Amino acid sequence: MDRAAILEKVIALVCETLEADEDSVDEDTTFDDLNADSFDKLELVTAFEDEFDLALEDEVLVSINSVGDAVNAIENAQ
Fold first, then answer.
1. Which residues are catalytic, by number?
2. What pLDDT is attached to residue 58?
3. What is the pLDDT of residues 15-44, one digit of tens each?
4. The domain that contains 67 carries what CATH number?
5. Domain count along the chain
6. How many Å apart are CA 52 and CA 71, to the nearest integer?
7. pTM recorded for the entire structure
8. Which residues have a Cβ under 8 Å from the Cβ of 47 and sit 6 or more positions away?
9. Which residue, 40, 42, 38, 45, is CA-closest to 10?
10. Is residue 12 over pLDDT 90?
11. Inter-residue contact 49 to 67 (CB < 8 Å)
12. Strand partners, 66
């Protein structure tokens, strides 16, 4: 899957999980910008792992702070 397709799916998952408007979310959007707490972030990671059928390493998980970070992590895990 190419980066654009991953980004599209990640934005959709972020917007669905955090009830954000897709027009306000891009690769530079941080989860803090969207007022995500630690439970929200855990829910997002679970959604990413389920959607892309992968498991992210713990050291990667702690580095995911933005939509772009999530895309990078998913791209690297495939």
1. 37
2. 85
3. 999 999 999 999 999 999 999 998 999 899
4. 1.10.1200.10
5. 1
6. 11
7. 0.90
8. 13, 16, 17
9. 45
10. yes
11. no
12. 30
